[in-house]
Amino acid sequence: MRPFNPPTRTLLGPGPSDVHPRVLEAMSRPTIGHLDPLFVAMMDEVKVLMQYAFQTENALTMPVSAPGSAGMEACFVNLVEPGDTVVVCRNGVFGGRMLENVRRCGGVPVVVDDDWGTPVSADKVEDALREHPEAKAVAFVQAETSTGAHTDPAPLVALAHEHDCLTIVDTVTAVGGIPVRVDEWGADAVYTGTQKCLSCPPGLSPVTFGEGAVRKVRARTTPCQSWFMDLDLQLGYWSSGSRTYHHTAPVNALYGLHEALLMLRAEGLENAWARHRRNHLALAAGLDALGLSLLVAEQHRLPQLNMVVVPDGVDEAAVRARLLDGFGIEIGAGLGALAGKVWRVGLMGYASREENVVACLRALESALTEQGVEVENGAAENAARAALEGAAGSHDDGGPR
Ligand SMILES: Cc1ncc(COP(=O)(O)O)c(C=O)c1O
User: What is the secondary structure of 172-201 as a DSSP string?
Assistant: First the structure.
């Protein structure tokens, strides 16, 4: 066996996405003790920077030392007690994972199903809340990575609060790519991941808990079944002042998150959202010129994750393999019900750049031609470049339409 030297790929799948070189460099700096005063001071900055990324002033904002699934679990194990009824919205794979979490916490799930590729229906959630006045929480995914559909959290949070329910919101693929406004929505427990639009490697899950969620944690009548995720215990470590040992923080991963968040703040959230949107529109124009269509209706599309319908007669796995082997570009396959039917093309974080849009379109043109699809040479790149020129100078807040 020898040291592992991975090739440099362009990661245009559903995540992980390309890590910014500054983040990789930051992560290679010397490891210091996690209770070293200098590290503690850096962690205080990470909290402030994450509050910016989430658009919240929640004091309980911290990265869980594990991937996005752990952020999800942290929300459920703290907020769902055995016997609690929880409305779970399922319009893709990750809503299904939320359902599993509710079950494993001993909660009573009420499932609101919507078609894959469509947003969560507020009307259905309202019906569920009327039928279940005992419900204590509503859980949903803002950016469904398995389908590319966006759900607007604002109306769902408002509905949940009208029915005295807390909200658990998955923003793993959202933060940094589209507007996430935790305080404006009033969302109670929100988690994200580092490996999508934050340009970091996988492995950390920033979470933020509002006052209502903290009250619920404090009022629990049963202890949180997870020692590691118990927020009461984690708080002792993360709250400023005296740091007490809870677990050994992933020191170098946190250097990386700090660096990534500094870059996000320097760019400005609105600019980052607009960049994701601009590059999405360019990609969509190019895909159209290749004769490819997107699964999700225009107004519900996530700019950072494009669900491209595989044309009849095309070998979807062969195209992905060709992009990887021939061009060093990774795109994703469909998950669950969409397996074999779509490609998932991500333009997330540092990967959301014009040169990646063009490189991806050129590679797709070549792979489709090899599959016998008739495409006009260079048309996709021209369409993308025209869209980029058209977007230059226009004002756009970057939100999904
Ligand atoms: C919407 C969503 N939620 C949760 C997760 C789980 O995150 P992780 O794979 O980092 O555990 C993902 C990962 O892709 C995701 O896309």
Answer: TTTTTTS---HHHHT-SEEE--SSSTT---
The residue type at 257: L
Helix axes 269-289, 251-267, angle to 10 degrees: 80
Q: Is the dihedral of CA 210, 78, 101, 43 positive or negative?
A: positive
User: Does residue 262 sit in helix, strand or coil?
Assistant: helix
Band (237; pLDDT cuts 50, 70, 90): confident
CB of 316 closer than 6 A to ligand 1? no
Q: List pLDDT tens digits, range 290-305.
A: 999 999 999 999 999 9
Distance CA 104, CA 76 (A): 9
- The residue with tokens 């209770």 is 35
Q: Is the CB of 17 under 6 A from ligand 1?
A: no
- Can you say whether the dihedral through the CA atoms of 57, 59, 60, 61 is positive or negative? positive
- Three-state SS at 246: coil
CA distance 49 to 53: 6
**3-class DSSP assignment, residue 137:** strand
Question: What is the whole-number distance in angstroms between the Cα of residue 38 and the centre of ligand 1?
Answer: 31
Alpha helices in 83-121 (DSSP H): 93-104
Which residues pair with residue 108 across a beta bridge? Answer: 85
User: Is the shortest distance between the CB of 142 and ligand 1 below 6 Å?
Assistant: no
Q: In the 8-state DSSP scheme, what is residue 229?
A: T
Which pTM was predicted? 0.97
Helix (H, G, I), strand (E, B) or coil at 346: strand
Residue with tokens 């490891």: 31
Whether omega before 16 lies within 30 degrees of 0, making that bond cis, reads: yes
- Enumerate the H helices of 163-293 as residue ranges: 182-185, 211-218, 231-238, 251-267, 269-289
Task: Look up tokens 């048309």; give the residue.
Answer: 379
For the segment 323-378, what is each residue's pLDDT rounded down to a tens digit? 999 999 999 999 988 999 999 999 999 999 999 999 999 999 999 999 999 999 99
